[in-house]
Amino acid sequence: MVRYTADHKVYIKILYWGMASSGKTTTVDTLYRYTKENEKDIAPTGNLTKISMASGSTLYFDRGIFQSTKQKPRGQVFYHVYTVAGQRRFSPLRKKIFKGTDGVIFTVDSQTHLFEDNIESLKELKNITRGKLITEIPLIVMLNKQDLTEVIGEEDFKQVLKDEKLWYEPNDEYYRWNPIIYKTCALYEKRKDVYRSFTECARRTGLYQIYGDGEAPIGDNAKDIRDF
After folding, report:
1. Dmax of the chain from CA atoms?
2. Which of 1, 54, 139, 160 is deepest in the core (most CB within 10 A)?
């Protein structure tokens, strides 16, 4: 839940969710380094916190705090960015880490032989959110590892979203809030749309709060949105 403090600070929690080894930690590493080395709309504050196994896989979670570099009408904005451990045995922990999440970036391992594992991870996320994805919690999709061969395509995963009722047709009032699907590579040397996908999730989270009172702005509320 977005938190507002008496000293006009705003705290937003954005969560990277996905199967094991989909690239969540690498994505946050790249986001941290890229925004630290370049003048962007967000900048990291402090260092990343990582709790990992000897193999390098996330054991509990990764966490980073980023601050908006633009002046906002409601005060300073801070983004608490988390990842979850993707291994099946950490399902109870993922539920705990999810609490208070305001926006989700679903990170797909695009290798075709892992297609079903990604769907399983998406179904778990859908179950934990209890029907709130898109309607109350913005959802962005990263098709990661697109630098490899034999990868999942955008249309393939769009069909998955449709099958899971996470995609709305043009005549539906939630259509404008359909997940944007970014074809990404999280490696810093090959980075592609890591920053863009994060800022879009952050932007939508802000729109949900300002124009929808915590929900996707639809109807009359949607008419107030500028530059969408």
Report:
1. 52
2. 139
| Sign, CA torsion 101/105/109/115 | positive
Q: Are 68 and 88 spatial neighbours (Cβ–Cβ below 8 Å)? A: no
Q: Could you give the number of structural domains in the chain? A: 1
Residue 129: which CATH number? 3.40.50.300
pLDDT digits (tens, 9 = 90+) for 51-78: 654 444 444 568 999 999 986 655 689 9
Q: What whole-number distance in Å separates Cα of residue 183 and Cα of residue 131?
A: 25
Q: How far apart are CA 208 and CA 204, in angstroms?
A: 6
Q: What is the pTM of this model?
A: 0.92
Cβ contacts of 79 within 8 Å, gap of 6 or more: 12, 13, 14, 42, 65, 66, 67, 68, 202
Please give the C-alpha separations between residue 184 and each of 14, 81, 103, 181, in angstroms, as whole numbers: 18, 18, 18, 9
Q: Identify any residues that bridge with 146 across adjacent strands, giving them in sequence order.
A: none
Tokens representing 30 are: 């790249």
CA distances from 91 to 122, 161, 169, 201 (A): 13, 21, 32, 24
Element (H, E) at 193: none
| CA terminus-to-terminus distance, the chain | 23
pLDDT of residue 158: 98
